[in-house]
Amino acid sequence: MTGTPAAAQRLRDLARLRRVRDRIDREYAQPLDVEALARGVHMSAGHLSREFRAAYGEPPYGYLMTRRIERAMALLRRGDLSVTEVCFAVGCSSLGTFSTRFTELVGMPPSAYRRLASEAAAGMPPCVAKQVTRPVRNREAPAAEPHLA
Question: DSSP 3-state assignment of 93?
Fold first, then answer.
């Protein structure tokens, strides 16, 4: 039976990748980097990045930032924290990087989102607001329709 050891190794790698993804989901507000995540599953940072991208369509850092932005969106919808407070609450250490990544994923700066989202989600159950306002990653963004004149 050729391929059985390779298949078994692939399953072990996928289990380790799931552990990394679960850790990111759980500890998104902690200072995480690819090297620390890789050490936790006994992989090199390069191997983890390649395998994570192959399995989930984006690198671990991109996935981490998406989780942070999703949580930031929820905090901004509440309206009781400033953008700077939200930035640090979700684990970002640079307001500039946070704002840039937020704008890339959401399509507007966090301050504008905070203003608009509090009005748009008024009266909406939090579980529905979370789903409706989920950020769109670049690879998920719908393709622009061709404009026919």
Answer: coil
